[in-house]
Every structure is written in structure tokens, then in C-alpha cells.
Amino acid sequence: MDFWTRKTWHDKQAGYWIASTGGIAKSFTLDLLVDPKTRGNDKVVHAIVAAASSSGVTRAKDFLKTVGAPSDAKAYGNYQDLANDPDVDIIYVATPHSHHYQDSMLCLEAGKNVLCEKAFTVNAAQAKKLVEKAQEKKVFLMEAVWTRYFPVSIYVRDLITSGRLGHVQRVFADTSVNTEPEKTWPDGKHRMVNPDLAGGSLLDLGIYSLTWVFQTLYTTQPEGRKPPKVLGSIKKYPQTGVDEMATIVLTFPREEGDAHGIASTTLRASSDTDGKGTAGPAVRVQGDKGELQVWPPLYRPTKTRLILTDGTVEDREWPQPGVEGEGLGMFWEADEAALALTEGRKEGKFESLEESIVIMEVMDEVRKQNDLKYPDKIETTDYPAWFVMSSLSQIKFYDFADWQMQQSPRQNSVSTLDSRTEEGAGISFWDPSLSPTLSTPRTTPPSSHLKPQRSEFSNTLLFNPPIAVSFAKGSSVFKLKFARVDVRKDAAGNLRCLELSDPDKFETSLIHSFPNTRLPIPHLERPYVPTQSSTFRVSFLEEQTVQTVGTLFQAKPDYTFEKWEDCIRLQEAILSQSVLFVAGIAQAKSKGRGEECISQNLRVLRSRSGRQIILFFANSQRKEAKKYVSVPLDSIDQFDPGKKANKPVTLKLGNSTDLTTILKTPQQKSMAKGRVRRLYKTDRVREFEHEQDRVVRAQQIYATIDRQPFQWIVVLVAGIGFFLDGYTLFASNIALPMLSYVYWPTETSGRRVTYINIATLAGTLFGQVFFGILADKHGRKKMYGVELVLLIAATLGVVMCSTGVDGSMNVFAWITFWRVIVGIGVGADYPLSAVITAELAPTKHRPRMMASVFFMQPLGQIAGNIVSLIVVAASQSQGEDNLPRTVDVMWRWVIGLGVVPGVLAVAFRFAIPETPRFLLEIEDDPIKAEFDATPLFGGDGDGNSTELESAATWESIPSAASHNLDDVILPAPMMPDSSQWISTGTPPVTLNSKWQLSREDITQYFWHEGNWRTLFGTASTWLLLDFSFYGIGLSSPQFLSKTWGNLRLSSDTSHPPWQIDDTGTKSIYQQFMATSVHALVILNVGSFLGMVIMIIFASRVNRVTLQKVGFCVLAIIFVILGSIFIALPISGGPGIIAMYIIAQTAFNFGPNATTYILSAEAFPTRFRSSCHGISAGAGKLGSILVQVFSAYYKFGSSSTSHHSSKRYGTIIIVFAVVMLVGAVITHFMIPDVQEKREKGSGWTTVGRNKTLEELALGRMGARSQSIARARRVQR
User: Fold this and answer.
1) Average pLDDT, stretch 419-441?
2) E strands in 575-635
3) Where are the domains positioned within the chain?
4) What does the alpha-carbon distance between residue 598 and residue 584 come to, in Å, rounded to a whole number?
5) End-to-end CA distance of the chain
6) SS in 3 state form for 252-312?
7) H/E element, 791
8) What is the pLDDT of residues 437-471, one digit of tens each?
9) pLDDT tens for residues 277-334?
10) 552-607, pLDDT tens digit by residue?
11) Residue 22 has what pLDDT?
12) Does residue 643 carry a pLDDT above 70?
């Protein structure tokens, strides 16, 4: 179903509520996303507001994510809740044909307007009932035959009523598809050939043929028109008995003479044989003045030909509106429904309810003539029908044994099983939306097939072991999610297995057998295979024991509730609040399976005062053992289920007991061992273990991350390493001239320094690409910290380089080697810091957090310059007696001090958890992801309520349910010497499976879906940026001196790299001091200012637009600088310094920051680090190329200063062109990472940041198939 809220139509939007999540609902919803203005409609704006699925809330959430719905869209697990929502105004019913009547009636009963998918119902009687109910409720009702609202259909009807064809004599219409049903649906369960779902060609395809016949021969006629006479022929599909071919001859009474209409359909031939229209028209409307032909497919025709008797031939194309022909065209019917509501109409404009009933009567007559019947259970007009499990409002209690049920029907249900029952145990299903019942199963033989029988039970629900409770998806904790349940016993009478048949899921979260001293161990005996129609099996072990470490606090789950909602609310209170574990180790050993270890945790919810706690056992699938100190039993005075509304069941402690103090010690102990040993906040304040569905759990974890404030701890950990990167790369620009003075004082070419820089950049390139790929393969955490240790060790290696005794060592070779290693460490930090920050950042804070991390690089540069100033100033006291030795000490201090922040960062980096996104999407380990997400992010963040908190209403718990301590405490568990386990010979299937890189996935994502353009965009723009800025050589001491005006442009070949003035009168200390000052002013002022602005505006401007504009601004600045150098014989001065400062500001508040940020946002988790590394590596490639070029081509090598200035100006203008190329590539190659701004708003106005999951879909968006194609393997 699809729901939307009607508002004042002009300047407002229609919000759609999506319930059915099948293919037709997806197509309809995707069409809603197409801007109505592309089809010339400025009266309507559609928006997705919510979704509901009878398969559960998880499927609704998946659907919303797939179609790209807003993050605030609601998700419902059943249609009843949606229909009862007071905000819902109109409902789009898109369930199977067999369910149209029941689901539409459900909505009409609730007083909601309805747009029901075609065919309207299964028969005319049901259609009449719906119309009567709509008239009674005074609400809108329309059959969603989308073809009627296409412009081509309006054109055809207008052509007929205008008289250009004369009197229409006959109409031929065929809608056929060659499906080869035996091969396509061999099991006969698909809705197209399943009689239980009203399958067959007539209702699914024949409705289009009848639509064209009726809209040409019936709709176009004046009031008082009469229904046609019917003659039909049907060929049945042998396997299931549905119709596979139908031909219908209709005779429409007319005053001027009867008109004939022939409608045909089949599943074994095609109206469009080759898919190119070669077979000719599928509709022929013949009048006495001409003929109109319509080409297939009839549900969405795109071509017509008008042939008149006077020789006129008019061919017309009917493409989809919009530049790219967006959507399928289902938006036309949505527009009509919206306009009908606005105008106060109760039915559609182009198909009246009377006509819908007549068409259903025609199909009834055809089936009657050919003895084609659907099952009584779907032809009934009773409401609600017992089989429609999506509407259980009047059904109380069912007993079943080996009974086939409809798929995904049981929302909010409880399954109870008494394992002590002898042969023929039964499964009981209970509807919690009604008054509660006692869940004591009745037993019936498995071989008997019973229809549900309503029985009376007591008005309380009593939980006594042993019972079986089913945990499932959605806001209600206990549910059942199976299509078929069959209980069997082995030869000895022991319960062995449940057989399930669910085409969508392959794992169950059943908790079986909740006895006093044993724990459940559910597992699958074999995985679900989509191509196999047979059922799969879920077993559980009868012999189970609990092995404890320390003291195990036990509570008997013997809570009595008047209403089922009370039990749900108890669990919600536990699962949505701060909890601590007080439990021992739960272990289970299975013969033939090795060891399986899970933990059954006793949850403790404590109040702020620490005086009250809640106890509850919740299932957990964790594989690790936990050791916790228990709450002393003698500290509990009374067990109280609660007496007032909104008060959960509690245990009251004695006056002398302080629970906070008791629980403090075990928490501290647990932090000292194992996986919880980390420097981050380790309170596990939100638990998702109750949710066994992987997708839902992932959504909950992402929601937990997004609720958090700005994560300073993440910025600090990533930023410290980046600080060291900036310090290391840019401190070398000051230290290398010192090193040149010591070892190569007379060399003027400067090539040795250039080679060392190139070696560093080459190592950086390698580290970026190599570690980026490793981080995607092995995890971010495993690589994080390793690169920092490498950087520290290599930096110390550089510091310890020397010539040895009598030149026994080549200092240039050793420095080059260690600088390569330094570069690898620096390069590795680029993708790792970016990706970790992006994946741990809340969506709304992601750009500012990444900008803050990148801001640490200019801070590192500033620190390098300040350290060099301090070192040079402190060394002046050494005098000039032994300058080489003094300078040798200076450069070692400048570089060596950089390891200090690195050492501080190492501890944090090794302690950081793996990103939840990597664990979920690569490791496929939602349990570990939840563990790593909650300790890192801690509390509830901004306090947004969860879905669990919005479930059933809490009702009072009777005071009579109060117990004393004796009712709560149980004896210690029995520990048998040996256990007998059921062995099935196959390993259990768990949630966990790894994503494995495959060529098919890479080809699909990057090539077939066009995302290579994004990678090309991020990589090439970074390359062009670094090519220009390293080419200008801003960080070179001699260039800084030229900019300052102390050195001529033509002085490159006449002075060694350490000399920065033409006179040679300055001391070596003054020259090094001047270099640091020049860098602080020219480089650091602009970079600092630019990054501060970037942090402020990172989330307030469109980052792709910012990069594009930044490139353009830099081009303008370069043109101005180049023109100055060409026109004037100068090399520096205040004006040039100011221009370079402005350039540095634009550089950092622009492409320098955005290339770093966008490369971490634009790709899916499985490729994110690799793509960021490749993009960053491309940048370093550009810097290497220009360094090599500059080493052999000196811009200022001419004999005259002015000519050198002209040549340098020309080079800068060339770099300006490179900047413009970067702007063009950004515009065409890099997609937006934020929602589009509204038309008419400024370029600085942006929508919300897209989530990484939305961006991961790439250019195809919701149509992307790459995630589905990603290959997974079992661990």
C-alpha cells in the first residue's frame, strides 16, 4: 500500500506512505521521486513519508532505503497500524490481487481514501462492496489503472470524441508476454500462476487489453451507456489450473449500430515479438473515417499512427517526460488522485467506479463461461477473511498443525510450544492486538489439516517455563516470521526440528525452551538456497546446560501480565535504557560440531538513585565469554511488578545496599581485559541484541552513530597523526637546506634536495594506494597505528643518518631510503584517517569532522616552522666556530622533535575500535559492530526516541502480581557430567559472512554503473591541484625568499639551496631564521585562515560546488600573478606576498580540503579506502611529475631578470589553465554528496548531508545492483 497526507496543494507536498514493498510498489514509489515539473505539473509535489510491509518493519525499512526515502520516513510492520494512523489520508494498495479487497476494505473501514492497484478486486461482488463502503464512509476510491492517465490515452479518447475517426466500429487490443511459465515459475507458487493469489493472464495482463477496449468503446460514450455482451474463451495452465490465455469478444450496444471489441492476452506469445515494434500495433481502433494504431507495450505505449480515409497519416511519438525520460509513468495516476482530493471528487476522472465494476463483471462472466474458479477464501466478500493475516483485527486464537499459511502474515505474534507434549505437538499463534489469552497449546495430530478454530481462554498471559518465544523484527519484541510451521518428533518422541518455508529469510531468531537451568542454542541445519523450493530446517538442542564462572544471579521468568503490551513494554524499557551485564559464561557443546559458545545475559536496568533494578534474560549470539561479578542475592528485599502506569517490573534493594557501588567494580574489571580494553567510553548504553535481523540492526547502529554530537575524540585521534604528517612533510622544507649546507655546501643545482623530496613523495604515493587497499581488505583498525609506528621509526632513521667514519656511509642514500619509508607512513595516514573519520562521524557532523582532521596539517606546518625558529635561535649561542656541526645538530632536532606528537598518537590509534560500517558491510558482523559502536559513542546523544519506545501503550500492572524474594530465586543450575546433543552433521549457519572482492563486483560498480567517472573525478582533480601547487614551489626556501624580494628569479643556478639572498652577507643563522619567518607569513597565515573558514562552512556550502568555485578562484589568482610577473620586472614584494596568502586561503578553503573530504564520502565502504588512496596517490603523482620537471627546467635561468620574470609568469598562467580544467572535471565527474538545493536559492544553500549508505549506491542510486552482486563466502 501507499499512503500520503493531503495538504493545501499549491506550494505544499503530497507525502506518500508506502506499505506493500513489492515490485509494483517500488516502481510507483520511484516514479514519485521524479519532479512533477518535468511533466509540466506545477500543482503537485510528491514526497515519501512512510512505508509498511506485511513482512515486518525490517522489510519496510529496507524498502525506504532502497528507494532513497528521507531519513525521517516512518516504517510500519503491518497495514492495520498504518490504516489507524491519523495522519494518513490516502492509501495506495499494491498487494497481490487476492488481497486487494481485504486490504482496501481495511483502509476504507478506517475512513481512509484508497487508490487500489488493478485489477480492482478478484470479482465484481468484492468491487461492489468496496464502492458501497467508500460511499458510506464518504471517501475517495479509485482503481489504479495507470495506463488511462497517460497523455497518449487522453489523446486517443479525445480523438474519438472529436469525431475524426467517425463512428468507431471495432477495436482490437492484445497484451501478451511470452513468459515460458514452466521454466520461469517451475514450482507454481509465483503470483502469476498461483490460484491462491488469483494468478493467471486475465487479471494481470488482460486488464490492459480490456482497458483499451473500454476506454475507446465505453468511457467515450455518453451517460446511459449499457454494459457489453460477453463471449470468452480461456486456455488453462495445466500445472496450476489458472488461465494462461484468454480471448474476449465484447458487443457494445449503440444506437448507430453495435460496436465490437476484442481483447486478448496470453503468457505464451508476445505482442511485441522482437521488442522493437516490428510486429506492428497492439491496438487498432477502427472507425468509418479512419483507423488509429497504438504500438506495444499497451501498459505504457510510446507510439501511435493515425490513418484517415482521406489519405492523412500522422505518426506521433510519446516519450516519457523529462530530459532523460524519467520514471515509468505511474506518476500520472498519482497526480490524478491528488487532484481529485483537491477538487473534492470521490472517484477518478477517466474511469468511474461504475466502469470498474462493469470490467470486473466482464471478467467474472469469462471465468464463468470457461469454468475457471479461484479458491473460495479469496473470492469471499466476508471481511475480514480468516486467511488474510495482514488484517487480524477480529481473530482471537488459532491452533494449527501442519497447515500452510500465507507468506509473512504474523506481525506481533507469539509462538508457544510445550516440549513435554507427546506425539503430535501443536503450535499456537496468538494475536496480541486483541485481549490477551493464556498461551497453553492444544495438541492435534500433525497429519490433520485444520482450519483455524476460535477458542475461549482465560484473560491472562502466563510465562512459565518451558515455553518457546520467537524474537523477530520490528518495534514489538516477540513475533513470528514464518510461512510454514511443522512440528515433528523423532522415533523416541523427542522434539527434533521446525520446518520453515520463507523465501525472503534464511535465518531465525527463535528462542526455544526457556527452562530454569538451560539455555537455547538455535541454529540452521543448512542455508537457504533461493533456487530451491524445498523447505529448510531449524533445529534446537534439548540437552542444554549453563556453566558459570563466579556467582550467577538467577531469576525465574514468572511474570504475570494482564495485557501483552505490558510484557512488550517491559522489554522495551530494558532494551532502550542504560543496562549493565550481570551474568556468567553460557556455554554449549554440540557433538560433531565442535564448541558453540553463546552468552545469555541477565540485564540489569538501574535508576539514577541506584535503588531499583529490572531483571530480564535476553538472547545473545556473542561468541566470547564474559566475566562479571553478580549482584548479591541478600541485597534484594522485594520483587514488585509495578502498580502504576509507565512503571516497569522492579526489584527493590535493601536500605544498606548501594547498587552503584556494587556494579562499579565489575565494570572496572571488565575494562582491564579482552576486547573492551580501550581508552574510549565503554558504557554500553544501547543494546541491539534483541534484533536478530542484520539489516535492522545495521540501521539501529547507524542511527546510534547519527544521534551523537561532534566526535572530538575521533578528530583528536585522526588529527594527531595528520598533525605529524604536516610537520614531517613541511619541516623537511626547512631541514633539507640545513642538511645541504652540512653535506653539500657548494652544490648549486639543488638536485639532491629535489631527489629527496621526490623519494618522499613516491613513498607517500605508495603508502596511500597500498594501505588504502589493505584497509578495505583487512580492516581500518588493523592498519591504523601501524603506519604511525612506521613513520616514527623512519623519522628516527632519518635523524640518525650520517657519513660514518671517513665517509664509510653514503648519507644521501640513507636519507633517501628513510625518507621513502617516511613517505609511506605519511601516505598511509591519508586514506586511513579520512575513512575512519567519515565512517565514525554522525552524518550531520561528517564534513566538519573531516575538515577538522585536515586542519591539523597546517597546524603541523606551523609547528614545524615554530620549532625551527626555536632551534635556530637556541643554536646561535654556539657561534660560528664550527658551523657545519651546529647546523647538523639543528636539522636533526627540527626533524626529530616530530616524533613527539606521533608517540602520543600511537596509544590512541591502537585503542580505536574498528568502524561499525566495515564490520557490517565487509566483515558482515553486526554483533561486533554493535559492540564497537556503543562503547565509542556512549549515551543517547541528542535523545531522539527509538522505534522500540513507540510501540504498544503501557497499561497498569496489577498489584496482585507482586511476589517476594522466594518467588524469584532459583537453586544453582544442574551441571551434568556429560550432555547428549542432537547432531545433524552440518555446521550451523550464523549471521557472519565476509564480503570478498570480486572482479564482477568491481566491473559492475565502476564500469556498468558508471562510477568510474567519480573515481576519475576525485583522482584527476587531486592530481591537477598538486601538480600546480608543487610546480609553483611555494614551500621552497629559495622561492619564499624570491617572493619576499630577497632573491632574484634568475638566481636558481648561482646559489646553493640554503642561500636565500643575492648579497651573501647574511649569516647562516639569519638565513634559516628568515626562511622560517617567510614560511609562517606566506604559507601558514593563508592555510590557517582557509582551514578555519572551511571548518565553519563545511556543512553550510555545497562541497562539490565549493571545489569547483575554488578551482576557478585559484585560476583567477594565478592569472593575476602571472600577468604581474609578465608585465613588471619584479620577483616579490608586499603585493606578491598578499596574493600568495590569498591563494593559500583559497587553496585550503577549497580544493585542498574538498579533494580530501569528497574522496572519503563518494564511495561505498568496500571500496572507500582504496578509492581515497588512489585519489590521494594521483595527487602525489602530479607533485612528483612537476618536481621532476622542475629539477631539469629552471623557470628563472635566463640572463636577464625581466625575462626570467616573464617566463615565470607564463608558467603560472599555464597552471591557471590547469585549475580551470580541474573545475570542469569537478562539474562533470563528481556527484553531489548533499541533497540538491531548492530552485532559486543561493549556491551556498544546501540540503542535508547524504548518508554514506546513500552515497554508496553511486550514480545509479536505488537502481544500483552492485551491492546485490557482491559475492559473499561463509567463514
Assistant:
1) 27
2) 579-581, 587-589, 595-597, 601-606, 612-618
3) 2-145, 151-317, 712-915+1001-1263
4) 11
5) 39
6) ECCCCCCEEEEEEEECCCCCCCCCCCCCCCCEEEEECCEEEEECCCCCCCCEEEEEECCCC
7) helix 786-799
8) 222 222 222 222 222 222 222 222 222 222 233 33
9) 788 899 999 999 999 999 988 888 889 999 999 999 999 998 877 656 667 788 888 8
10) 223 223 333 344 444 444 343 333 332 222 222 222 232 332 222 233 333 333 43
11) 64
12) no
Taking the C-alpha atoms of residue 1109 and residue 986, their distance in angstroms, rounded to an integer, is 60
Whether 978 has a pLDDT exceeding 60, the answer reads no
> Within a 10 A sphere around the Cβ of 582, how many other Cβ atoms?
21
Q: What is the structure's pLDDT at 326?
A: 66
**Residue 352 neighbours by CB distance under 10 Å:** 15
CA dihedral of 909, 914, 915, 916, whole degrees rounded to 10: -150
User: What 3-state class would DSSP assign to 455?
Assistant: coil
Please state which CATH number belongs to domain 151-317. 3.30.360.10
In this prediction the pTM is 0.49
Residue 262's beta-bridge partner residues? 172, 249
CATH classification (class only), 2-145: alpha beta
Name residue 1038's amino acid.
Answer: Q
Edge-first strand listing for the sheet containing 650-653: 579-581, 601-606, 612-618, 650-653, 636-640
Residue 990: what are its φ and ψ, rounded to 5°? -115, 180
| Residue 631 Ramachandran class (φ > 0 left, ψ -120 to 50 alpha, else beta) | beta
Q: Phi and psi at residue 290, in whole multiples of 5°?
A: 165, -175
| Distance, CA of 1059 to chain centre | 56
Residue type at 92 in one-letter notation: Y
Listed in sequence order, the residues at least 6 apart from 575 whose beta carbon sits closer than 8 Å to its beta carbon are 477, 618, 687, 690, 948
How many Å apart are CA 68 and CA 1158, to the nearest integer? 20
User: Number of C-alpha atoms within 13 angstroms, CB side, residue 1206?
Assistant: 7
Query: Which helix (H) or strand (E) segment is 1043 a member of?
Result: helix 1037-1044
Mean pLDDT for 1070-1090 is: 81
Q: Please tell me the distance from the alpha carbon of residue 18 to that of residue 2, in angstroms, as a whole number.
A: 4
**What would the grid cell of residue 390 be?**
495482514
Range list of β-strands (E), 32-103:
46-52, 74-76, 90-93
If you search the block for the grid coordinates 649569516, which residue do you land on? Answer: 1067
Residue (of 91, 56, 819, 799) closest to 478 by Cα position: 56
Q: What is the CA radius of gyration of the chain?
A: 37
Coil/strand/helix, residue 1217: helix
Cβ 631 vs Cβ 662: under 8 Å: yes
Domain 712-915+1001-1263 has CATH 1.20.1250.20: yes
**Which residue, among 145, 455, 94, has the nearest Cα to 330 in the 3D structure?**
145
Q: What are phi and psi of 461, to 5 degrees?
A: -110, 115
Q: Which residue has the cell 601516505?
A: 827
